[in-house]
Design goal:
The protein has about 800 residues and is α+β, with helices and mostly antiparallel strands. It is built from 17 helices and 39 strands.
Length: about 800
């Protein structure tokens, strides 16, 4: 039978969107970890009103207890506390839900998540959401009737009560709650209650708080713009977006706001805020997200008018936060705030406590969503948009240039992302994508869309400006005609696929899985514009895009995940600054096969180029330095010239050679002869697997053989006056005593980790009974023999074994 011929009248991008990713919720997946998972859990807990005012305590707690679950001991066997490391006794205390302080919270958990807490087991806490809920309940039990403290010092005391240990362990940890992105263009208006019930002193505290809020922001015409509305029985626009040019000027204007006195006509303040945020005469920008912060101490004069004015402000697209102090009316605060309400309302007993919510309001405001407006943006950072499902004749279309973008969509979670989403789309350059939803949605239903920008980097970004665009556009007509043997018939899905109209794996780059690369077993390649991914080849020549786990990036040198970029072209790690001469990985150098260069700030490192012009700072092996003449790392003091037999030259060749493009030690020959009487190359795959990199050089005891990771053997000189000792595994002086055997490291079948008896800042992970040494990070942390985690205090730290070499 002849295959059907397909004639396509019009081909549009919407055909390509039949293949969007299915939804996921990592907060309910056992063993899930990472900052995006923690943030998703906390967003659920706060927006559901289970623990909406934790003052960022649970965020800090996740990092202190398990580094957001990234610590290797987080999900150890026989311990089920999860990311928040809730002990079995802590969990048991919450399980009955009979305590007066958590009975209502347990009810909220059931109503919000369908979880009956009395039926939950400790093992369930291996799911991040359950671990976070258990930590919240345990916090309520510890606090009893006390208010949640807002500062880190008091929260450290609370942590010590809950988990034991020194409070300094908590307070000395990096405060991740203060790490947030506030680079979105935003028009921010403060709506300040200036009624007679607020004292002069409290009004000053309010103004200081408002001024401190903008300290975390880039106040400028290109970023955050600020305005100030004050109200009582009447209203006044104290200053608008045009009245200053610097952050200091905006702070001064806020601090000099005049108190009015009188009644509490909150609706006047909301109405003036609306006209300020959306009036270009006042300096409002049409492409900026709109945010309002209302601070009030009491009940408004007219609840209905206040509620209506707030609704009108929100309908315009503004996000409204409310801070209620003292004699507030909670249902009125809820009527004013944006959804989800509990994420947009903060309450205090008095103005003296207002600084305790500073970080929380800063983070929340900076993370606020923007109303979708069809605008083009060049932002490379993450941005969350709010829109509505278009009518049946319209679609949402995404385009990107000079990079890529990931789009996460949800109908329920107001901040979808890699951890939680209903739909995921990956948009590549030159491939417009239409957002199509398998569920039948009613026009007008709210959609929450998070865009993660991924611009090109390095040489690939030269003369290329990153831009992405989302827009609502008319649904285009598509006419597809299928004919079989000249007879028109109904098209099947297989017809569309075979015709190539649904290109599930269309790549905007050249397939690296060439026959030449496959013969060399080069199966992994860097992704051209996303360092968190790599390209994987199969032996049929097909290419797959693979994501690195967690927050790792792909190392083009080792062709493995788990490397930190220090690219001189931006987007890297500041630990190793770029050389002052700039990026040596020019197109000319790469075309000439020059991939390795001197790293001038530190001779124990060198620069390696990848084929896209990115430069990477790479470390030499311990005890070696980079030599541009030898084109490799050599032992300190060695002659880098290729003519000397004492130089660091490959023992099997007469001249230095650069590292191969594919680090694959098992495919290299191990039979190359060595000079002198040594015989064959000792750098066998078995030796490398056992981490044996050094051997005696039998012809001369003042030298030794060093293996590199690709199986090359190098003859290296000892320092003058020393000779090689295989027992010491080092060059030593004549007469040095024999090395101590040191303590024995033993991993039992039940051990997750054991201390390093010779180093308080290290430990051994036990994997199938084998010990694998790990160092605490940061390096000044101590391994705690009780918690099996690294912490800042030396309580329960490892005692140094007497047999260790000092």
């Amino acid at each position: 039978m002849t295959l059907p011929t397909i004639f396509v009248g019009i081909m549009v991008a919407s055909v390509m969107t039949l293949c969007q990713g299915q939804g996921q919720d990592a907060t309910l997946q056992e063993g899930a970890r990472g900052s995006v998972v923690v943030d998703a859990v906390l967003d659920k807990i706060r927006s559901s009103c289970v623990f909406s005012e934790d003052r960022q305590y649970l965020r800090r707690l996740a990092h202190v207890m398990s580094r957001d679950g990234v610590d290797s001991a987080t999900y150890r066997s026989n311990f089920h506390g999860g990311i928040w490391q809730v002990t079995e006794s802590m969990f048991t205390a919450t399980k009955a839900c009979s305590n007066v302080y958590i009975t209502e919270v347990c009810g909220n958990i059931t109503a919000s998540f369908g979880i009956t807490w009395t039926s939950v087991t400790w093992q369930d806490l291996r799911k991040p959401l359950y671990s976070g809920l258990a930590a919240a309940l345990s916090t309520f039990l510890t606090l009893t009737s006390d208010l949640m403290p807002g500062n880190v010092t008091d929260q450290a005391t609370l942590w010590a009560q809950m988990y034991g240990g020194n409070s300094a362990t908590f307070s000395n940890q990096p405060d991740l709650s203060t790490q947030f992105d506030c680079s979105d263009k935003m028009d921010l208006v403060f709506i300040l209650d200036s009624s007679g019930s607020i004292s002069i002193a409290d009004f000053r505290l309010m103004l200081t708080f408002a001024a401190d809020v903008i300290d975390a922001m880039d106040v400028s015409r290109d970023a955050v713009a600020v305005a100030d509305v004050v109200y009582s029985s009447f209203v006044n626009l104290h200053f608008d977006f045009n009245d200053y040019t610097t952050k200091d000027q905006a702070r001064t204007l806020l601090l000099n706001t005049t108190k009015l006195g009188g009644g509490t006509s909150t609706y006047f303040g909301l109405d003036l805020a609306a006209s300020t945020l959306y009036n270009s005469i006042n300096g409002a920008r049409p492409d900026a997200k709109k945010v309002a912060i209302l601070i009030t101490d009491g009940k408004s004069k007219n609840f209905t008018k206040t509620s209506d004015s707030a609704q009108a402000l929100r309908d315009l697209g503004a996000t409204v936060f409310v801070v209620g102090v003292g004699g507030y009316r909670l249902n009125e605060l809820h009527a004013v705030a944006s959804d989800p309400i509990c994420s947009h309302v903060l309450t205090l007993n008095s103005f003296s406590d207002i600084q305790s919510i500073l970080t929380e309001i800063q983070r929340s405001v900076c993370d606020a969503s923007k109303t979708f407006d069809n605008s083009t943006t060049s932002a490379a950072h993450t941005q969350t948009l709010v829109t509505e499902v278009p009518d049946k004749n319209d679609v949402i279309e995404a385009n990107v240039s000079c990079g890529a973008m990931d789009i996460y969509v949800s109908m329920t979670d107001h901040k979808p992302g890699p951890a939680v989403y209903d739909y995921k789309y990956q948009v590549e350059p030159g491939t417009p994508t239409v957002l199509i939803f398998k569920k039948k949605l009613t026009a007008g239903t709210k959609l929450y869309i998070t865009v993660v920008g991924k611009p090109l980097t390095g040489f690939a970004a030269t003369n290329c400006t990153y831009r992405w665009n989302l827009r609502v556009t008319r649904r285009k007509a598509v006419k597809v005609i299928c004919k079989e043997n000249g007879v028109k018939r109904k098209c099947k899905k297989s017809d569309i696929v075979k015709a190539g109209l649904c290109k599930k794996n269309k790549m905007p780059f050249k397939n690296p899985c060439t026959r030449k690369n496959l013969k060399k077993r080069l199966l992994r390649h860097p992704h051209p514009f996303d360092s968190t991914k790599f390209l994987l080849c199969d032996f049929a020549g097909k290419v797959y895009v693979v994501s690195c786990p967690g927050e790792d990036i792909f190392n083009p040198e080792t062709r493995e995940c788990g490397f930190t970029s220090v690219c001189t072209c931006g987007g890297g790690n500041d630990d190793d600054p770029a050389p002052s001469t700039g990026n040596p990985c020019t197109p000319e150098a790469i075309a000439n096969g020059q991939f390795y260069f001197t790293y001038s700030p530190d001779d124990t490192k060198f620069i390696q180029c990848d084929e896209w012009g990115q430069s990477w700072v790479m470390p030499c092996a311990p005890g070696t330095v980079w030599s541009q003449d030898a084109y490799t790392c050599i032992h300190k003091g060695a002659d880098s010239g290729s003519s000397s037999t004492s130089a660091s030259t490959p023992a099997s060749t007469s001249a230095p050679a650069p590292p191969p493009a594919s680090p694959s030690p098992h495919s290299l020959s191990t039979t190359a002869s060595l000079p002198g009487s040594y015989g064959t190359n000792p750098c066998t795959p078995q030796a490398l697997d056992n981490e044996q990199f050094y051997f005696p050089y039998n012809s001369d005891e003042t030298k030794f053989i060093q293996c590199d990771e690709w199986g090359n053997a190098w003859v290296m000189p000892c320092e003058p006056g020393t000779f090689w000792s295989q027992d010491h595994y080092d060059c030593i002086k004549k007469g040095d005593p024999a090395p101590s055997p040191g303590p024995t490291i033993t991993c039992s079948s039940t051990d997750i980790s054991v201390p390093d008896p010779c180093d308080q800042h290290a430990y051994y992970n036990c994997v199938n009974g084998e010990a694998m040494r790990k160092e605490c990070f940061p390096s000044d942390l101590f391994y705690n023999t009780v918690t099996k985690l690294c912490s800042y205090d030396d309580v329960n730290a490892t005692p140094i074994d007497a047999s260790c070499d000092r």
